[in-house]
Recover the amino acids of this structure.
């Protein structure tokens, strides 16, 4: 996948020799999902290592636990691709498809990966609500929607609990489930559950 070229060119020293570094991954979940959850990029030792988005790291622990509490996941944790995790009426994806250096995608990486997300969004024909985890994902969803003929003016700003109507989608903002947010209390389980509750209500 061309979008991973930049990340693969100069991996951090701790990842040199790891065969999974910069390996692209796709989204995961129910192809008939009405709820789409979008993150920034796969974690190097999480989704990048396991081959399934938000799997095998603490961010994934938080996300899949929330999906389970909301009734979308059959179990509360996701550790490996063969762990039995299944999603019903929900799909999880990312804007950038490979682990970026320092977990900070560049505009170049975003622009290279965005067409893949656009195609994915087109294929997920039943999606009605989208939860964007963080400002980067919020921006990516708006860019993808514009590509699909759903521009929004004025451009809605990101914030935890933010909501916007984007063509056929109800877009919801949440702080990312990163350790930087969950360990510091910036994002709590009740805060995350409230966003999932609002999104679930939006799809009936």
């Amino acid at each position: 996948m061309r979008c991973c070229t930049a990340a693969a060119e100069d991996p951090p020293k701790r990842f040199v020799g790891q065969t999974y570094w910069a390996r692209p991954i796709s989204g995961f979940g129910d192809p008939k999902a009405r709820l789409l959850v979008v993150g920034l990029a796969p974690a190097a030792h999480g989704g990048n290592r396991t081959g399934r988005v938000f799997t095998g790291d603490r961010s994934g622990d938080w996300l899949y636990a929330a999906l389970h509490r909301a009734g979308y996941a059959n179990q509360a944790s996701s550790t490996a691709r063969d762990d039995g995790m299944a999603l019903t009426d929900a799909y999880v994806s990312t804007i950038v498809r490979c682990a970026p250096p320092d977990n900070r995608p560049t505009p170049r990486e975003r622009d290279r990966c965005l067409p893949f997300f656009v195609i994915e969004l087109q294929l997920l024909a039943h999606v009605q609500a989208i939860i964007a985890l963080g400002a980067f994902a919020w921006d990516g969803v708006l860019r993808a929607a514009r590509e699909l003929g759903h521009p929004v003016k004025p451009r809605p700003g990101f914030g935890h609990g933010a909501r916007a109507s984007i063509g056929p989608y109800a877009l919801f903002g949440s702080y990312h489930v990163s350790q930087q947010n969950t360990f510091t209390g910036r994002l709590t389980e009740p805060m995350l559950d409230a966003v999932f509750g609002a999104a679930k209500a939006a799809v009936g």
